[in-house]
Amino acid sequence: MTDPYDPSREGAQMSFDGRMSYGDYLHLSQILDAQKPLSQAHDEMLFIIQHQTSELWMRLAIHELSAAREALQGCDRRPAFKMLSRVSRIFEQLNSAWDVLRTMTPSDYTTFREALGQSSGFQSHQYRQIEFMLGNRNTALLKPHAHRPDITRLLTAELAKPSLYDVALAALHQSFPLPDAVLNRDLEQPHSENPQVADAWSTVYRDPQTHWELYELAEKLVDLEDYFRRWRFNHVTTVERVIGFKRGTGGTGGISYLKRMLEVELFPELWHLRTGL
């Protein structure tokens, strides 16, 4: 009979007294102690972990979007393309998470829904920050965070910065002059579709070899919005499957509110130009 396999024979570290371990580095004790169901319902653990992991992925998305925006404002825009691709993959992960949540039936959800009180994903400040970063800006949506001055300051500061699309349009302007109404708009408001912006992007798409960097930037933005739209759509179908047309726990119209969000276009000129090519 052979001896049991011992990884230490091959140099694996087995003693962590005074050394940093995997759990230490990731602060796993804090993370794994953060699931505190308020009911005895079996599926509440699923609900909590689904939303906590989504917030972690959004934390990374904000990290990448911030770096991408900064890179696009610099001399070398190419690093931003990798970051934008990563954000698209993050939203692919967020999309897959809905598949897990959809294993919870309406009957399962009703066993703990009352324990949620008025809490709702609508109140996620990280999701709000991502929307603001991408250009979907609405100062009315600061109100759910008024009880947290620190979060209000964070979101208000974001509204004072150019969105990702604003930065992309500034890059486009270097090759195709754009009107002042586009370049110096009120940053607290969403971008409004502009025919000169549409013409500029159309020129890029008609001759991508000449304008390759702008062409690649445009496609990275379209790819990102594609995944973001899928996330919104999956959100709608998951909510409809679990609660039907009930109001959301946070007081929104539920499905009616989420379907309205499906109509939002972040980079309208990049989508609409395709018809005319």
At a glance:
This protein is mainly α and 277 residues long. It has helices at residues 22-26, 28-32, 44-72, 78-101, 106-110, 125-134, 149-159, 164-173, 180-183, 195-206, 212-243, 255-262, 268-276.
How many whole angstroms does the radius of gyration measure? 23 Å
Mean pLDDT: 91
Care to count the β-strands? 0
Whole-number tally of structural domains: 1
Using the coordinates shown, work out and report the CATH topology: Methane Monooxygenase Hydroxylase, Chain G, domain 1
Question: What proportion of the residues is helical, as a percent range?
Answer: 55-70%
* CATH class placement: Mainly Alpha
Shape designation: globular
Element order: H for helix, E for strand: HHHHHHHHHHHHH
How many H/I helical runs?
13
* Biggest beta-sheet profile: none
**First-to-last CA distance:** 72 Å
- The low-confidence parts are none
Q: Tell me the strand percentage band.
A: under 5%
What does this structure look like?
The protein is an all-alpha fold. The chain has one domain (41-120, 162-276): Methane Monooxygenase Hydroxylase, Chain G, domain 1 (Up-down Bundle), CATH 1.20.58. Helix content is 59%, strand content 0%. α10 packs across α13 and α11 (212-243) packs antiparallel against α12 (255-262). The chain is globular, with a radius of gyration of 23 Å. The protein starts with 21 loop residues before the first helix and ends with a helix. The relative contact order is 0.11. The model has no long low-confidence stretch (mean pLDDT 91).
